[in-house]
Amino acid sequence: MMKDPLSHAMRNVPRYTSYPTAPHFHDGVTAQTYADWLDAITPEDSLSLYLHVPFCKELCHYCGCHTKATRQEAPLVAYGATLGKEINLVARHLKTAGPVRHIHWGGGTPSLLPRQSLIDLAGLLRVNFDLAPDLEHAIELDPRLVTAQLADTLATIGVNRASLGVQDFDLAVQKAIGRVQPYEVVARATDHLRSAGLTALNFDLMYGLPGQTPATILDSVEKTLSLAPGRIALFGYAHVPWMRKHQRLIDESALPSAAERLELADLARTELQKAGYVAIGLDHFARPDDSMAIALADGSLKRNFQGYTTDQGEQLIGFGVSSIGKLSKGYIQNMLDVGNWRRSIENGELPVSKGLALSVDDRARGRIIEELMTNYACDLAPVCQAYGLSTQDLADAFPALEDLAADGLVHLDRSANDNARVRVTEAGRPYVRLAAAAFDAYLADSQAAGKARHSAAV
Questions:
Q1: For residue range 292-344, what is the model confidence (pLDDT) as tens digits?
Q2: Which of 45-59, 69-83, 232-246 has the weakest average pLDDT?
Q3: Where do runs of H (alpha helix) occur along 331-427?
Q4: CA 389 – CA 382 distance, rounded (Å)
Q5: Helix, strand or coil, per DSSP, at residue 49
Q6: Which of 242, 318, 235 is nearest to 23 (CA)?
Q7: Which of 122, 288, 352, 379 is 20 to 30 A from residue 240's alpha carbon, by CA?
Q8: Is residue 80 over pLDDT 70?
Q9: What's this model's pTM, rounded to 2 decimal places?
Q10: Exposed, middle or buried, 13 (CB in 10 Å: 0-12/13-18/19+)?
């Protein structure tokens, strides 16, 4: 029996969309480093492409994304043109590469790009890359901006999955977070997309928002279920005003307490599972026939900067301001401001800001963390053997795991012959980030030095 769930729930740890996490990237990884890594990609390496568009019509108070507000078309047209030049620039380094298995447009609000910009960029992707026949082509959308014309444009460029940022349906909560979008707006957006043939839909919901109560979150879940998306992401709001200054617009006194936040998460999770959705990892749910639920069942589920994914691309290439890529050799992040990013590309230089070359230890721990975050279990010995290590090289993880095991959150089996197996229990699944954090060799030092601040575990 867990002794103190709140003490676990409020521990601050990364979300582990990467390992090592982005605060550990450094400027020792340069444009030349990236060029060398791209040149090393082979025809056996399938690709995943991410395009970041850092613009919204207005900033929502809760947003933690790298974006800014604009209501002018000129910056969007200019951004799209530079994005196209970056695609061409990167493609010149990919003399031999396998097929593209996944494309994801994120932001910001990528659909703010004018119709012609979207068409031109999609055309460049087709010209420069070998797109797999079973390509998943996804985009993040603001339901308030989805029109029949936009839906038709997305279908025209090959988008076959759309993710709608719903967050919450309660009007008072919407006002508190600066994003008013009635149920009818979301329903209309859903209808437009389905009418255009985009039937693979994701909804993003959030718990821990100001003014949320058990009644409001249950109502939001009920309204979401009435629109029957194939996937639902249930994210915990991360209040990080030291990183995102616009979050200071949120009244901290209206945020749910630790106990209330935990109750909201449990209520929403229970209702989604009662409705037949399969719980996936930390915060995702999918219908049993959805490809993500199938990937969970067959062990092919992955986790990257877009969260849980069916993306099987071995190499993730990022385009656009602040985008992050992951290649076999390590992580790359683009410049964070549009001006420097554009000047670099105009000069024919890859717009690298920083990155991190992966060590053998990083690779082994990253694989263990991903297995825990996706499958809730990991046999440590075969992972260690794959990287020429021993489970004794992970000795620093065992004290934290033993503490979690004492509270019933994980089961730790340390048998003879250098073998060990970690399994997150049913009760421990909401706290899976804590099990992953046990293997994070950077975490203690970075927290002690104040280099990284993270959100609550639940």
A1: 999 999 999 999 888 899 988 889 999 999 999 999 999 999 999 999 999 99
A2: 232-246
A3: 338-346, 360-375, 380-386, 398-406
A4: 9
A5: strand
A6: 242
A7: 352
A8: yes
A9: 0.93
A10: buried
